[in-house]
Each structure stands twice: as C-alpha cells, then as structure tokens.
Amino acid sequence: MKITALVSLAAAVLAITDASPINRRPHGGVGHSVAHKGHSIPLTRNPHFKHNTKAQMAKLNKRYPGINILASGSGSVPLTDAPTDLEYYGTVSIGTPAQDVKLDFDTGSSDIWFPSSDCTTDACKKHTQFDSSKSSTFKKDGRSWNISYGDGSTASGILGSDVVSVGGVSVQQTIGLATDESSQFGSGPSDGLFGLAFDSIESVSGVKTFMDNAIAAGVLTKPVVSVFLPSVRRNGGTGGEYLFGDIDTSKYTGDLTYVPVSQPGYWQIAIDGVTAGGKDLGESSQGIVDTGTTLVIVSDAAAKAIHATIQGSTNDPNNGWLVPCTLKNSTDNISFKLGGTDFNVPLADLAYEDLGDGSGNCVSGVQGGQDLWILGDVFIKNNYCVFSQTDSPSIGIAPLKY
Ligand SMILES: *[C@@H]1O[C@H](CO)[C@@H](O)[C@H](O)[C@H]1NC(C)=O
Ligand SMILES: *[C@@H]1O[C@H](CO)[C@@H](O)[C@H](O)[C@H]1NC(C)=O
Ligand SMILES: *[C@@H]1O[C@H](CO)[C@@H](O)[C@H](O)[C@H]1NC(C)=O
User: Fold this and answer.
1) Residue 307, exposed/middle/buried by CB under 10 A (0-12, 13-18, 19+)?
2) What region holds the Peptidase A1 domain (predicted)?
3) Residues 3-25: pLDDT tens digits?
C-alpha cells in the first residue's frame, strides 16, 4: 500500500485495511500532494554499477573456452525515493531500440506492466506510454490481461512480449500493456509496476516472471534480487538500488539471516515475535516482505499491543493509528523476530507523516487490519533484504548500513 498525500491519508489507511491477500495490493501513488511537487530527488547512478563487466567477461571467455562466463552477471537499478519514502522506482528499458519507463519494483505482486501508446485514459496520458510498433523485438501475444489491487485501483489491456532490461540484465519477457487504467495511477510517480513475487500470483496463469526467465537464461550470477531502500530521514533518500543477480555486502552490518519462504506466491515468511517498549508482546504471524507497501501492516491485536507501548498514541477512526510526532527524536526501536534474529524498526520511523492539522500527531508507520502481516518499506528501509529464488527460496535480511 502506498500511503501518499495528506489529503488522501484517510482513504489510503482505510484502503490498506481492506487489502485482501488475494487482490492484495493497494498500489502506489494515490494522489500526490501539490506540496510535494518538485521535491523528487534526481536519479543518481549507483557507484557500484560496473559498466565494464561484460567486456571483462568476454576476455575471460576467450581464455576459458567452454565456460560461458559472459552469460552471467548482475544489474543495478538506481532508485528514486518519491517523498517521503512513499514509493521507490527506477528506470527499466523495454524493446529495441529501448524505450525507458519508470517502474515501481514490487515484491508483493508478479506482473510487469505499464501504459501502452494505445491507451487514451487520462491516467495513461500522464505517464510514458510504450509504443510496441516502434520495437523490432516486440512479439504479439493476444491474451487479454487485467490486475486489481487492494485499494480498488485496476489496470487492464493485452499481453505482449519484448526485451526487458534492468541495469544491463536483459530477457525476453511477457509484459502487460495497459490500455485502461483507473484514475489512481494518474497521480502516481511511476509509470507502472515491476512485479518481483512468484509466478503463481501472476494475473494470467502460466506467465513466467522476470526472475524466472533471468534465472533460466543463466544471466544472473546469483538467483537473487537485493534491495536497498534509502530513507529521507536517514540519508536524504539517496543511493537506493535494486541489485539483480548479486548482493552488495557494503550495504549491511553483520551477516544476512536467511529466513525460509513458507509459501511462495508472495515473499511469505514466519514472523516469530514482536518486541516493543522493551518487552516481547507475545505476537506472531505469517507475513510478507513487500517493497510495494509503504508501511508495516499487522493484525489489529498486534497494532494495539505495539501502540500500547507508545505514550500518546491513539487509534483514530479516520486516520488509523496516530503517534506523537515527537517520536521523530526517539532513539528506541520496535523489533520483529525473523529466523531467530530481532530486526529493528526505529520508533522515529513510526512517526511516518505529520497529519498537518496542528495536533502534533503523525500517521503511524505501523497500522492494523491484516492477518497476513505486511513488512513494507518502513521495515525494508531499515533492513537490507535479499530475495533469493533458489529451489528453497528464502529472504536474507541484515540491518542496513548507510
Ligand atoms: C481479468 O482476467 C481474468 C483472468 O485472465 C479473467 O478471467 C477475467 O474475466 C478478466 N476480467 C476482466 C474484467 O477483464
Ligand atoms: C526534536 O528535537 C529538537 C531539539 O530538541 C527539536 O527542536 C525538535 O522540534 C524535535 N522534533 C520533534 C518532531 O519533536
Ligand atoms: C535501534 O536500532 C539501531 C539499528 O539496529 C541500533 O543501532 C540502536 O542501538 C537501537 N537503539 C536502541 C536504543 O537499542
């Protein structure tokens, strides 16, 4: 769920609580406030991006014929942090010659889609529209396609296939070309979504995901996508990246704890405990690690237990859980136990966004209403996550280092 502008907070919070695990995701970008316009942070190329990897590998291939080292690599996609840590997107190239679209990378869904040049709705027209007739590698598919998210937003159109390229890693990929989009997408900062969950939750069954295809083609050094989400509070929202095919060990402290995926579909894991105010709250659940959801969403009971440890917090029927904005100065944490390790979320990040009504209250970064909990960006921007798609998939997690 992407909680966005102040004006849409109430609706957005309600939408999260409606999020069914099936058509789950309140998608990104519901009504960005005017106050935020022009504040978007320019793309910064990641310093770890290796332009010359392919040339180096070609040399190695000549030396070791028979071993196709060229086939394997990694690709880094620098991220833009849509203020304030609302949604993170990066540039993806589609077709030949490449047409660039800005996509919201989403580990909570599996489809890759963006507006088609055939789409005439207002929402489409506000974004980059892909023109398949200008791509020599585009292949028709013909099947119709549609997706709906937990906030009621929808998109539909037809499937096609083309070269999809992230940070230099390319595969021929089935894509959704939207010819109709609900209005919520018009105001969102990204053109569309790049799903990173498993193929079993593709909208059209039988479609393989980008990671499925990249792994099968052997173009990745490791079958992983590693995520570093920055935070405006901690580092100005700069340097974020999705690293396809490798792990950036400079981005975290200590070792990664690999938590087994309990049910592939979403990136679903067991959450074995929650600590807040220095005590174990006796709460546990299955949950998903979802880059496409802005906040952390837990059950009503867990949200109540967490906020009971935060003085001055209230549950407002219109805005959900509120906390005093003074929490921004706190150095304390709450933590989630995953794979035997406690992972911190600073209380400072629970003061997610000032209500702006002079009450001194902030919308809490933790909300209730989900029995399948969602560890969204409020969690991920504090903990490096490696989505590892081996035969026994797991998520490697370690505290983030800025
Ligand atoms: C959406 O797609 C599903 C699965 O392909 C299909 O059964 C359904 O009829 C479609 N719905 C609409 C409104 O097009
Ligand atoms: C945080 O502390 C500083 C210094 O005491 C103060 O000026 C500021 O208003 C505080 N911020 C919040 C959100 O309470
Ligand atoms: C809160 O978490 C951070 C990051 O894990 C840690 O460095 C810090 O010491 C924790 N604060 C407290 C009061 O334990």
Assistant:
1) buried
2) 88-398
3) 332 223 333 333 333 332 222 33
Find the catalytic residue in 151, 290, 349, 377.
290
Indicate if 111 and 23 belong to the same structural domain. Answer: yes
Residue 372 neighbours by CB under 8 Å, 6+ apart? 21, 266, 268, 285, 286, 287, 288
For residue range 54-98, list pLDDT tens digits in order. 333 333 333 333 333 334 699 999 999 998 999 999 999 999 999
Q: For residue 328, give the ligand 2 atom closest to its CA.
A: 13
The yes-or-no answer on residue 106 being catalytic is yes
| CATH code, domain carrying 36 | 2.40.70.10
Are residues 276 and 233 part of one domain?
no
Tell which one of 143, 144, 181, 203 to mutate to probe ligand 1, the residue whose CB is within 8 A of the most ligand atoms. 144
Segments forming the whole domain that contains residue 364: 249-399
Domain end call among 194, 223, 244 = 244
Parallel, antiparallel, or unpaired: how do β-strands 373-375 and 341-346 relate?
A: unpaired
Q: Which pLDDT score is estimated for 325?
A: 98
Q: Exactly one of 81, 104, 106, 246 is catalytic; name it.
A: 106
Give the ligand with the smallest distance to the CA of 275.
Answer: 3
- Point out the ligand 2 atom lying closest to the alpha carbon of residue 351: 13
Please tell me the distance from the alpha carbon of residue 230 to that of residue 249, in angstroms, as a whole number.
Answer: 16
Q: What is the pTM of this model?
A: 0.85
pLDDT at 298 over 50: yes
Task: Give catalytic status of residue 151 as yes or no.
Answer: no
- Is the same domain home to 25 and 77? yes
Res 28: pLDDT: 34
- Ligand 2 mean position to 309 CA, how many Å? 21
Question: pLDDT tens digits for 179-205?
Answer: 999 998 998 899 999 999 999 999 999
CA distances to 48, 145, 207, 345, 384 from 377, rounded to whole Å, are 23, 28, 27, 10, 11
Among candidate residues 218, 244, 270, the one where a domain is terminated = 244
